[in-house]
Each structure stands twice: as structure tokens, then as C-alpha cells.
């Protein structure tokens, strides 16, 4: 994986050096993802919000760095608290009452990428942008006990249930950028596929009272996204525009 990372940096540097900058921008996006692989055993569909820096060159090569925050209320693992639940499926707090526990998916990803853009007319920024990248993905079950006293789920015991998982990930993006020459309405939409090679980082799983598996997981996310483009600098025949 380290070799792939260095190779992407080398390719990006080789293809972009000595090429005139066409535009640089920051994008803000929202994504909706469908999990596949082992991650789907724990989580349902999730959302993301992200920020991305992109720089496009005059030879249609572009590259950048992106980061996303993942979140969802869709937890598929109904057996999470089987060993501390009552027969009716409730966890009892320290006062003997039914505990109010909220389970959420939380995570993040970050990728560097390089790609090539296709345009209908020469010297146009609008068009199809296809890229691939490598980075890092992490996700876990966030256990919100609302400050209740639940001895079975104190800060240390939560780690035995949260299934903190992370690892190297790869990503493919197919985006269409709408960037009019004289228009302030600049946005994009696209498809995203992430394949991550992850492991559960907790040594022991309290849900099944077993040591955590050391096997490599293949977590996949397939999604749609839409976002706004905030140009930093943009070249035309007259001047640069700064926002």
C-alpha cells in the first residue's frame, strides 16, 4: 500500500509539473452511501459531508485532497448488547430503570487523488472528471448514554462494543462539474466507490465475549454526491478572479 501511495504522488507530480494552472477550487459536498461487504453487517445506509481541494491543469489532469465525515442512525447489528440486555431487550441503568441508549455510526475518510477531465469544447472547465485515489477510512458505533449512570457501559466498557475499525482505502470518483465561464452558479454531482482494507482495532468484543478477529475486512461504500464549488483562482483571457 505504501508503494501505491508513492506511485500516485509520483504520477501526479510528473503529469502536472510545467503545466499551466487552469483553476483551483474548494468544494463542499453531501453524499449518501450504501454499504457493501462486512461493513453492511453493522451499518445501513449512511450520509457524509465533505471538503475537497482540487487543482486542474491545462492538460486536463487534475489532483487534490479530500476529507469526509460519515454519520448515520442505521445500525444493523441487533445483537450488540445481547449479553447485558433483559429478556425484553432493554439495558438496565444503575438506578434499576430502563436505559435510554442511542446508537449512531460515526466515521471519517481522507484521500489524495489524481484524475483526468473530459470537455465538450477546448478550454472549458465544465465536463466529466474521473479520478482515483488512496487514503484512510475509519468507522465505529457511537454509543450515546445521555450521561446516564450505566455501569455496564462506562467509558472503558463502551470500547468493547463500539467496533472501532479502520484501514487503508481506495476510491474511484466519476463527477460532472457544472462551471459556467461567467456564472457564479458552480456545482457538481457524481458517483463514488470506496473499497477499504480494514481491521477491528479493539482486542476484545464484549458483544460475543470473544477476541476480535485478526482477519482483514473488505469494506465497501457506493454512493451519490452533490456539492458546491468555491473557486480560489481561475484563469481566463483577461484576469484572475479571487473569491
Features:
9% helix; eight-stranded antiparallel beta barrel; 53% strand; 10 strands; disordered C terminus; 243 residues; mainly beta
Overview of this structure, please?
This protein has three helices and ten strands. The chain has 243 residues and is mainly β. A hairpin with a 3-residue loop joins β2 and β3.
Main β-sheet description: 8 strands, antiparallel, barrel
Q: How many strands?
A: 10
Q: Which radius of gyration do the C-alpha atoms yield?
A: 22 Å
Which spans of ≥5 residues are poorly predicted at pLDDT below 50?
Answer: 237-243
Distance, first to last CA: 37 Å
Give the mean pLDDT.
Answer: 87
Count of helix runs: 3
Residues in helix, %: under 10%
List the strand order in the largest sheet.
Answer: 1-2-3-4-5-6-7-10
How much of the sequence is in beta strands? Answer: over 45%
Instruction: Work out the oligomeric state of the chains in this entry.
Output: single chain
Order of helices and strands: HEHEEEEHEEEEE
Overall form = elongated
Amino acid at each position: 500500500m505504501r508503494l501505491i501511495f508513492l506511485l500516485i504522488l509520483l504520477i501526479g507530480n510528473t503529469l502536472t509539473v510545467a503545466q499551466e494552472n487552469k483553476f483551483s477550487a474548494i468544494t463542499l459536498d453531501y453524499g449518501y452511501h450504501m454499504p457493501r461487504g462486512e461493513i453492511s453487517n453493522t451499518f445501513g445506509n449512511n450520509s457524509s459531508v465533505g471538503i475537497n481541494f482540487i487543482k486542474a491543469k491545462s492538460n486536463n489532469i487534475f489532483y487534490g485532497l479530500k476529507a469526509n465525515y460519515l454519520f448515520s442512525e442505521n445500525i444493523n447489528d441487533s445483537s450488540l448488547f445481547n449479553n447485558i440486555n433483559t429478556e425484553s431487550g432493554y439495558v438496565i441503568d444503575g438506578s434499576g430503570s430502563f436505559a435510554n441508549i442511542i446508537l449512531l455510526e460515526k466515521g471519517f475518510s481522507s484521500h489524495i487523488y489524481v484524475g483526468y477531465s473530459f470537455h465538450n469544447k477546448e478550454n472549458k472547465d465544465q465536463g466529466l472528471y474521473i479520478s482515483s485515489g488512496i487514503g484512510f477510512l475509519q468507522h465505529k458505533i457511537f454509543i450515546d448514554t445521555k450521561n446516564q449512570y450505566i455501569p455496564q457501559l462506562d467509558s472503558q466498557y463502551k470500547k468493547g462494543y463500539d467496533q472501532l475499525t479502520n484501514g487503508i482505502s481506495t476510491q474511484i470518483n466519476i463527477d460532472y462539474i457544472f462551471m459556467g465561464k461567467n456564472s457564479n452558479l458552480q456545482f457538481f454531482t457524481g458517483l463514488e466507490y470506496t473499497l477499504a482494507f480494514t481491521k477491528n482495532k479493539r482486542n476484545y468484543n464484549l458483544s460475543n465475549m470473544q477476541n476480535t478477529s485478526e482477519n482483514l475486512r473488505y469494506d465497501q461504500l457506493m454512493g451519490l454526491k452533490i456539492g458546491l464549488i468555491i473557486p480560489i483562482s481561475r484563469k481566463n483571457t483577461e484576469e484572475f478572479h479571487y473569491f
